[in-house]
């Protein structure tokens, strides 16, 4: 797998940069790949401490140690749309998008491989067809590419903000403003490397929010992403004092409702079809767990 580091990055160690980009790989695993010469920068072998500043060509050689075995599995798959170029699915909460070191089965990719033998190879065997991701405990609409041309088109639309995404969330506390914009660069948490945080050397991140409904101790909100950073909505809402209900990674507040994971749902995805150039709009209905919480709060 070869890719270019984003331009104009704040200088950071190679192992830290790759850990941010491929969060399913541990930093120690990445360091071993570097020391074994399986990761090069601009064609040269470097140390884990090598500083990435942006624009470098990074090669990660495919190895058994770096990969996990992908096997087709007959798993439930909620398909919203499918044609020769793409599949749009409603991912269930609790389903990991693709296998990794600690998760080798039961993922969305395992299900896709059973349903569809032809998926984009842009991301190699680790992420066949995966254009963008959702956290394991975030439900909702995702697009998957069936071929490389579709993958490149969809990835460009997401990068250039042509593809628009909206999320629905239930957060702790009562938001005073009806709408607002949260801006804060997001990077790996300096203390807990499994978490993200607003950091001075992070990547720019902007989230728009709109209040849909207020309750005594919670708020139902719609969020729109201007950028697509890891855990962006979770980090930004926590930063303004309103962490997501059920998000045990970013808040210690108790959850008295029946939901396993954060109350966050990818609700809509709008994009241009990579072949027909038709404007397409997809909606994943709110899952039962969030619907039940809202009914309880309204009651």
Can you describe this structure in just a few lines?
The protein has 299 residues and is an alpha+beta fold.
Could you characterize the architecture of this molecule?
- The chain has helices spanning 14-21, 27-35, 108-115, 148-159, 232-239, 288-298; strands at 2-4, 12-13, 39-41, 44-45, 51-52, 57-60, 79-82, 86-91, 139-145, 164-172, 179-183, 186-188, 196-198, 206-214, 218-225, 264-272, 279-283.
- With 299 residues, it is of the alpha+beta class.
- It has three domains: 2-60, RNA-binding S4 domain (Structural Genomics Hypothetical 15.5 Kd Protein In mrcA-pckA Intergenic Region, Chain A, Roll), CATH 3.10.290; 67-160, Pseudouridine synthase; 166-265 and 292-298, Pseudouridine synthase, CATH 3.30.2350.10.
- Strands 7, 8, 9, 10, 11, 14, 15, 16 and 17 form a nine-stranded mixed beta sheet that branches. The protein has a four-stranded antiparallel beta sheet with strand order 1-6-3-4. A two-stranded antiparallel sheet has the order 2-5.
- Strand 12 (186-188) and strand 13 form a beta hairpin.
- Helix 1 (14-21) packs across helix 2.
- The termini are far apart.
- Residues 64-68 have low confidence and may be disordered.
């Amino acid at each position: 797998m070869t890719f270019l580091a984003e331009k104009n990055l704040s200088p950071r160690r190679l192992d830290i940069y790759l850990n941010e980009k491929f969060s399913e790989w541990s930093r120690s695993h990445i360091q071993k790949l570097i020391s074994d010469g399986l990761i090069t920068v601009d064609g040269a072998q470097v140390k884990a401490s090598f500083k990435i500043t942006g624009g470098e060509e990074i090669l990660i050689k495919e190895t058994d140690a770096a990969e996990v075995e992908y096997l087709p599995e007959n798993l439930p798959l909620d398909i919203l749309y499918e044609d020769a170029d793409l599949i749009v699915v409603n991912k269930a909460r609790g389903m990991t998008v693709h296998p990794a070191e600690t998760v080798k089965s039961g993922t969305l990719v395992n299900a896709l491989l059973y349903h569809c033998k032809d998926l984009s190879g842009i991301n190699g065997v680790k992420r066949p067809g995966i254009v963008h991701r959702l956290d394991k405990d975030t439900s909702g609409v995702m697009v998957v590419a069936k071929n490389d041309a579709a993958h490149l088109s969809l990835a460009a639309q997401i990068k250039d903000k042509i593809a628009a995404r909206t999320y629905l969330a239930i957060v702790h506390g009562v938001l005073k403003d009806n709408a607002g914009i949260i801006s804060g660069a997001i990077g790996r948490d300096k203390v807990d490397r499994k978490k993200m945080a607003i950091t001075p050397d992070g990547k720019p991140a902007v989230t728009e929010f709109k209040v849909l409904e207020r309750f005594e101790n919670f708020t139902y909100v719609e969020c729109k992403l201007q950028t697509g950073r890891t855990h962006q909505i979770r980090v930004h809402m926590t930063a303004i004092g309103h962490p997501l209900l059920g998000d045990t990674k970013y808040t210690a507040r108790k959850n008295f409702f029946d939901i396993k994971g954060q109350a966050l749902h990818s609700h809509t995805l709008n994009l241009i079809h990579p072949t027909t150039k038709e404007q397409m709009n997809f909606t994943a209905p709110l899952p039962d767990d969030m619907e039940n919480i809202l009914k309880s709060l309204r009651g």
